[in-house]
Amino acid sequence: MSTTVSPPAQGSRRRRSGNTDRGFNRVFRWIAVGAGATILAVLAAVALFLVSEAWPAIMASPEELAEGVPRYPEDTSLLAYLGPLIYGTILAAVLALFLAVPISMGIALFISHYAPRRLSQLLGALVDLLAAIPSVIYGLWGFFTLAPVLTPIWMWLNDNLGWIPLWGGNASPTGRSMATVGVVLAIMILPIITAVSREVFLQTPKLHEEAALALGATRWEVVKTAVLPFGRSGVISASMLGLGRALGETMAVLMILSPGFTYSLDILAAGQHQTIAAYIAADFPESTGLGVNTLIAAGLALFVITLAVNMAARWVVARRKDFSGAN
Length: 327
Prior knowledge:
Elements: H1 7-59, H2 62-68, H3 78-114, H4 117-130, H5 135-160, H6 178-202, H7 206-214, H8 219-248, H9 251-256, H10 276-283, H11 290-320
């Protein structure tokens, strides 16, 4: 004998199910809100710590800084003291970005649109593997292997193209220069830019590519007219991620670069430049009192630079988002 569920029982079950779903939705909403608020709270906590700990150095006079900070030049303001560090940090990051972006875009386009499927999967895995290598390994490799290889190239550039400001001065015979640091940083940020650009290029609508092919476009023309315009904002975002990594890199720069406090454009010379992160790592173990506050003030400057770079990237991406391949 078959049994049937009466309509009131079915309605009661639906109401219980609806109440349960609303409860889950409410819990999930609060979890999501809490996760977003946590990010803001951590960012605010970091900013508050940097400002509070750097404030004694910011408010100190040049005489107090000269007494409390080792190797601090007399009659020099904090901003003038940190200026060469800020310059060196930006110079290293710009050099790395200038070298890495074209190569990363080429690798991403080859993996996404030119390579056979098996080869593209292998290359994609290898590129992702580069991002997992610790920075100290890059530093050791750059110091012991890459610098001796690049030194003859830097010497040739200095001898034959020394009239160009970047390659003038006295090239370092050890290769411990900003040029070598730029190459190492470019290799370090290359997998980040390549991975993000590759995923963006793969999202190009097939209808756009097929339409270009139907009009008689070559493979390069398809990339030029459909893939690159669609992925422009993604490439900018990827470049800014790589730039953020280059700005904050510590160990590789510390191990390779021969430091100096100048505004020189001679990237082949040693003892000319230093970055904020490498400066903090080198001086922090021996610093006390006002010296620690000065190092944290340098960290605050790096924090502001990184925020400014990311805000600029968001502004550029927002201007480019009018083009959408999904439209």
